[in-house]
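[retry 2/3] Hypoxanthine phosphoribosyltransferase: previous attempt timed out, resubmitting with same input.
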Amino acid sequence: MKLQIADLEFEPLYSHEAIQQRVAEIAQDINNDFEGRQPIFVGILNGSFMFASDLVKEIVVPCEVTFTKLASYFGGLSSTRTIRDDFDLHVNITGKDVILLEDIIDSGNTIKYLIEKLQVRNPASITVCTLLFKPDAVEHSIEELKYVAFQIPNKFVVGYGLDYKELGRNLRGIYSKIG
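[retry 2/3] Hypoxanthine phosphoribosyltransferase: success.
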């Protein structure tokens, strides 16, 4: 089933059911790894809002949830390499375990920027959890990356929080650009 969003065509990559299964599996891993601890989940808006919401519903360890907003895509098909920092965390992370929830890691510039920004606040740990990871596009080693729902080819994707020209975030599945 092809899907038209603005001027581009997309085809299904992952169904809603496949996404929910992986989210539940990752949540179980986090529950096991953080047993006896109280992590702070930091969703990176806008793209991670669906992933963050579904993931934290499956978390059984005590936790806090907050958000920050960064952007490196501005309506196009690739990162601009310019990171816009729209709003900062409003919680103290000193001495706490922080789990960053990202929608997609491609170049790695945005997550690297955020990790460096948060490290100066002396958290006990920083761990990265991403819905999508493009290993062929990544330009930086991300030692903190521990949880990956799906590794994908270096294709442009929309749905489940990810957008093209601010459209498509509401789709339940993930779709890849045709061509």
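[retry 2/3] Hypoxanthine phosphoribosyltransferase: The first strand starts at residue 3 and ends at 5.
[retry 2/3] clearing retry counter.
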